[in-house]
Amino acid sequence: MTRQASRRGVLAGGFAALSAGCLGRTRNIAGRDRSSQLTLEINAPPADRDPNAIRIARHLAENLDAVGIDARINTLGLTDLRRKVLINHNFDVYVGQFREAEPFDPDAMYGFTHSQFVAESGWQNPFGFTDINGTDELLASQRRMDGDERREAVADLQRTLGELQPFTVVAFPDPLTAVREDRFENWTNRQPLSVGGLLGLERVDGGGAGGGETEGGNGTDGDGANRTADGNETADGNETADGNETADNETGDGLIDDTPLADDDGASDAATLRLVTTDERITQNWNPIAAEYRHYGTFTSLLYDRLALVDDGEVIPWLAADWGRVGDSGIEISLREADWHDGEPVTADDVAFTYEFLRDTAMGTTESPVPTPTFRGRVSAVDEATAVDEATVRLTLDGVTDAVGVRALQVPILPKHVWEERTGVATIGGFEFDAETTEAVVTNNENPIGSGPVRFVEASPEESVAFERNPDHFLTRAADGSTGGTDGDDSTDDEADPLAGIPERFRGKPAFDRLEIEVMGSDIAAVQAVGDGFADATVSNLGPDSIPRIGREADARLVTGQSGGFYHVGYNTRRAPLSNPRFRGVLASLIDKRTLVDTAFNGYAEAAVSPLAATPEWVPSDLRWEDRETDPVHPFVSESGSLDAETARDRLREAGYRFDEEGRLLAPDT
After folding, report:
1. Rg of the chain over all Cα atoms, to the nearest angstrom
2. The CATH number of 286-453 is which of 3.90.76.10, 3.40.109.10, 3.40.630.30, 3.40.1120.10?
3. What is the model's pLDDT at position 555?
4. What is the value of pTM for the model shown?
């Protein structure tokens, strides 16, 4: 007889038990308590940090249990979860969000799935996935092709990933932010908390930062710079939300206890931009290469300039004044005049050092390289970086196209005199590292020294952090003298202009003198802080349960946009039976994406098959969700809208797996 589980029933009920702690731990896939039954541990953040992820985890666990697999949910704080998954690779299954907030170039999949990164830690291939003759070849081909040839390679890549399922794409969430506009304006309906979004803000009083005039600021017409495609997009901790099923904590006393901003004597300071978040990580760590502490990396991207900024699809020369092709494989880059926050000049040596350092943070001092846990996909496109003179650097590319080359320009440039002191092997008491690592990878980077438009001021761990406008940044320094260009122009080609190539909307920015971020205990409290005037915007992506609260706040409004940060279920393919793509395909068919979008996300998401669904021009018609009710590659196993557990068992039997007389799936070696 077919055993069915209600589609919505698996999502119903409270999540207190799931967020209270680990429901079961196991290092081996074979269960400890019932040695013959297959056990899978699903790792996810708790409900008060990411209600969407825990609901996906619960949905999958319910359906795994229904087909005879002992599924155990293990909730971990965001830092511990990422250390477990990304650094130590000690997991069976995880639920998470991709790290690029904006729709991205297909080459983002190179670092995420290429087998050359299988032994590395971080965001590059956390699944341990290998498909040398299929996926790897397609990833390499799309780097070297243009036009229709690249489009065809990218389409085949998506089909291959869909078939092999190293991860299962679930949905692209709508980024939800609460903002108020009485002190700062030009919040847009794209990504208001991207680097471009924050730099595009204008003071309502009409004055620029520091009381000076600023030009531009017409971001309300829909052409504002509020969108990036490279990972320096939205604020750190965008994956957080409160997960409360009701608004019972919306009391005045609760807000005062939860909102240190309420007691801030400087709350009326019009030059201070105040943000609130439920993710405390930005108050503890400012290391731009720390995978477990960075999500989208907005604030570290404000601290550390990149050679290029991509904003709403526009490639903007940033720390690079300009660049051009040299020969078949070179890019020669001229740097703007810039200083580090400690007063030292930014030179081509710093840029060349950065690319070598990101490939090996030990800089040759260890037996084998210790690559950075982030940005490896991008720097893998660069064979060599050489300082030509103090202000010119040449990158030798690995035969890649211009689109891939632009991604290679989007890494944080680091001061050599600071980071070359952090190449030694790290030894930190209390932390377990399954592979050799360096001080550079594990440092919190206290008192960060970058070259970006904001500087670090102070922080109270788990409570708040403050930054200030960098008066010596090229955006500010050059604009104080002359902005160049003419009214109505978005940029200028005047070679004498020190801000050539910089759109007018960014000149003289940021519009704030000080940026403060306060940690809140819940989404509801964060929204109330905005509504009550203690904050200008929420930093974390809000969970759908907090949306009604925004509607009740007269001075707050909801800003939403398009996200590239898709939710997915990741599988550790180093472990059997997750090493079997047929087994992973059956697991994918247990996920009812349409119901998750309707129930878990309350409709604030789009179900998807492909990781490139946010850039539909890259997705072939056979992989577009559009009006589909289920996944076209691995359809949800259902009968009359409910899980058809017996059909799922039959598919597992066809793949060679056995069940005992009680309907429990046996571990492969039992």
Report:
1. 25
2. 3.90.76.10
3. 87
4. 0.83
